[in-house]
Design a protein that fits this description.
alpha/beta; 15 helices; 46% helix; 9% strand; P-loop_NTPase
Amino acid sequence: MRQCVETNRKLPPQLRRNPIGKCIYFATKRIYKCLNIIPAPYKTKYFVNGYPVILIHNPKCGGTSLKTILGNSGTTHSMPRHVMRESKWLRTYSIVAARDPFDRFVSGYSFFVNGPYKGSLYNHYGDALKKMDAFTFFEFIKQHPENLGHQVDWATFPSSQKPQADLILKTELSEFWWETLKDHGITTSQNNLPKKNSSRKSGYSDADVLKISNSELKKLKSMVAEYYRRDYEFFGYPFPKT
């Protein structure tokens, strides 16, 4: 119940997430586990060694493009431990993509704040979402783990038999995703990666996107790196030098 009473005091009241609403959100996801059914957006038409292939959509890691390749319909950013029983997890072939944590953070800021996004966060917070500076966004997004939480939560499962997804792709190697899928027994009709839901404009530096100075960028990188330390370690990304 701790997460139901905590709130981020570093944020102004209008940007704080209702902790009860947060608990309700995650509780509704557990309905799938109770009913022992896989969320429809997880499902693909493919099989590996007789196991149905599922796609776990880690936000801002090229998941929309992967959905196009694998033919998924619908969208969910649900973490597998919330929606699946271990028995179901063990009888599926799971795919997830990961990304350098700071690049992912920048992409998230570009998408939610700079871009035309008008989804659930905008519906709740309105124009205050679009007016956030990068440091405020960093504190803000901590209360919304389903939108930009730790990537290990999408790539792992509390199971001693299969503690992580069967195939973890890297966004930085997305040009080879089709070949990688084929090497793992998944041959799709799409042999090139479509650019879907891209947030970043080419030619813009991180400081440009985040609208901060280079000295502020260095400080923010350090803060983001410490917060996402588990992701750097788990996925093998080099920890930023400070």
